[in-house]
Design a protein that fits this description.
Number of strands: 16
Order of helices and strands: HEEEEEEEEEEEEEEEEH
Largest sheet: 7 strands, antiparallel
Shape: elongated
Number of helices: 2
Radius of gyration: 26 Å
Length: about 300
């Protein structure tokens, strides 16, 4: 497997912090066309990322309890295919965390070989982070499955919203542009939007092939799920700690995995004469030039 991370990723390109993840901006993030090839997308499928919870429309962590929600391996992100995968999930944070209390909701993705993992969500003092873990299944322990823990991974990348998540609703989005052709660079986009303020943090990672996800060593992430953890909260006035006050909800409304297939169409290239044709044209030109000179000399 290629090195999961290289210094090339440190030169990732930052996208405008205020650009919203809207349909009108798709042209800015679906930038795969080249001089030789254009790509078209067709919406293949949409599945819910939040399974049923006894009739409730959300999964919630109360106090310091842990909640894990995982899917069967039919829900997957396959880097061996020409496809676009867009994972969107909505989170509600509420209450005031006690000092040292971590409240988070992380999406975890593990390869079929358990040799690479991706974490995406919030950390203790960061609204949105993407973590890369080499050689580990992050679902093995809750400490690894959390971006709040130091054991969460080898590298972490943050959006521009480097602060703790205030109470409110947030929409997280993670996009993979995958190519079966190893000569084309796969891409990862991730970001978060505070639905109440409209503030958006986005970051673009180029060359996801550096993550060991492209070419002959392409990965299939077929263990996908969420790890949710609430913290103890201060009572009104901040005078005492109150356990079991909730803290975070993963909402079904707006939480989906959308998959598009991508079709490549070669760009018509201008006809260029073959080398033999160039020689023929040059010969004809020489004959015409010689004939004209003979006429002038007479």
């Amino acid at each position: 497997m290629k090195n999961i991370i290289t210094t090339a990723l440190l030169c990732a390109v930052a996208v405008s912090a205020n650009a919203a993840w809207t349909e009108t901006n798709k042209s800015k993030i679906w930038m795969q066309d080249t001089a030789d090839m254009t790509y078209t997308y067709s919406n293949e499928s949409t599945v819910s990322l939040v399974p049923s919870n006894g009739g409730l429309s959300f999964w919630e962590s109360q106090g310091q309890s842990e909640v894990n929600v995982h899917f069967d391996n039919s829900v997957k992100v396959d880097f061996t295919k020409d496809a676009r995968y867009e994972l969107t999930f909505r989170v509600s944070f509420f209450g005031q965390p006690n000092n040292g209390g971590y409240t988070y909701c992380n999406l975890s993705m593990v390869t079929s070989g358990n040799d690479a993992s991706i974490l995406f969500g919030n950390a203790a003092n960061n609204v949105c982070q993407l973590g890369i873990v080499v050689g580990k299944d992050v679902t093995a322990t809750s400490a690894q499955e959390s971006l709040c823990a130091n054991s969460a991974g080898n590298q972490k990348y943050s959006t521009t919203l480097t602060k703790a998540a205030a109470a409110g609703f947030y929409t997280y989005k993670l996009i993979f542009e995958t190519f079966a052709d190893s000569s084309i660079t796969d891409k990862i986009y991730f970001g978060v939007t505070n639905e109440g303020t409209g503030e958006t943090g986005q970051f673009l990672i180029l060359n996801s092939s550096h993550l060991g996800l492209g070419g002959a060593n392409s990965k299939v992430f077929d263990d996908i799920g969420f790890h949710i953890f609430g913290a103890d909260f201060l009572t009104e006035g901040g005078t005492e700690v109150a356990s079991g006050q909730g803290g975070v909800k993963l909402l079904r409304d707006g939480s989906t995995l959308k998959t598009w297939t991508r079709t490549a169409t070669p760009v018509p290239q201008p006809n260029v004469p073959e080398p033999a044709a160039f020689g023929l044209l040059a010969g004809l030109g020489a004959i015409v030039l010689a004939a004209s000179r003979r006429r002038r000399s007479r």
